[in-house]
């Protein structure tokens, strides 16, 4: 059984950080130095502090996460500063549980949150060489809209966006 809920103060940032490391290991093996590959617990705390972090639990165990960020006042990626655009980051699903719909449910919950907060668009970025992720996001309705070269990253990212309709009644 799948449950998705916001991060609570009593949730373990250590467990969340470990999940990110496991989920991003495949990307690390491709030579892609995403922040979540090896971020420490303090970085996890800093990243979730400015946004809305959702956790997914599968049969009571932490199984996935996604972080939503309201429109940035300033950012190295200008697309994330556009009025009405929320950003989706730090998307991860426990590797052994991929294929159970957890990721799709997290993405949907993130889109629902963004709509509920009045955002008309949700944007994300991923490494261009991570073609499996680009394909996944395109299958979920995200379209390439820009590129960004993040400081310290060995890859260029493709910025993808999805227009959000009204919440279903």
Note down, in words, how this protein is organized.
The chain has 169 residues and is α+β, with helices and mostly antiparallel strands. The chain has one domain (2-163): 3-Layer(aba) Sandwich (Aminopeptidase), CATH 3.40.630. The chain is 30% helix and 30% strand. It contains four helices and seven strands, in the order βααβββαβαββ. Strands 1-2-3-4-5-7-6 form a seven-stranded mixed sheet, sandwiched between helices. The longest helix has 17 residues, at 13-29. It is globular, with a radius of gyration of 15 Å. The two termini are 24 Å apart.
Layout of helices and strands:
Blueprint: E1 2-6, H1 13-29, H2 41-49, E2 52-58, E3 61-69, E4 85-93, H3 102-116, E5 121-127, H4 131-139, E6 143-148, E7 157-163
Parallel strand pairs: 4-5
Antiparallel strand pairs: 1-2, 2-3, 3-4, 5-7, 6-7
InterPro entries: Acyl_CoA_acyltransferase, Bact_Acetyltransf, GNAT_dom
Protein name: GNAT family N-acetyltransferase
Domain N-acetyltransferase: 2-165
- Strand element count: 7
Structural domain count: 1
Total DSSP helices:
4
Range of helix content: 25-40%
- The CATH architecture term is 3-Layer(aba) Sandwich
Oligomer: single chain
What is the mean predicted local confidence, pLDDT? 95
CATH superfamily name?
Gcn5-related N-acetyltransferase (GNAT)
Please provide a brief summary of the model.
Residues 2-165 form the N-acetyltransferase domain. This is GNAT family N-acetyltransferase. This protein is α+β, with helices and mostly antiparallel strands and 169 residues long.
Give descriptors for this structure:
169 residues, seven-stranded mixed beta sheet, 4 helices, 7 strands
């Amino acid at each position: 059984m799948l449950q998705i809920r916001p991060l609570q103060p009593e949730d373990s940032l250590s467990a969340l950080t470990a999940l990110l490391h496991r989920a991003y290991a495949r990307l690390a093996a491709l030579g892609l130095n995403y922040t979540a590959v090896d971020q420490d617990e303090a970085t996890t705390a800093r990243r979730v502090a400015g946004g809305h972090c959702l956790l997914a639990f599968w049969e009571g165990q932490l199984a996935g996460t996604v972080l939503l960020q309201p429109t940035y006042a300033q950012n190295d990626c200008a697309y994330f500063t556009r009025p009405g655009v929320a950003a989706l980051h730090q998307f991860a699903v426990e590797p052994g549980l991929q294929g159970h719909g957890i990721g799709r449910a997290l993405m949907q919950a993130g889109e629902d949150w963004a709509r509920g907060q009045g955002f008309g668009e949700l944007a994300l970025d991923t490494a261009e060489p991570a073609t499996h992720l680009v394909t996944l996001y395109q299958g979920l309705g995200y379209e390439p809209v820009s590129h960004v070269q993040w400081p310290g990253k060995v890859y260029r990212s493709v910025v993808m966006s999805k227009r959000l309709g009204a919440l279903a009644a």
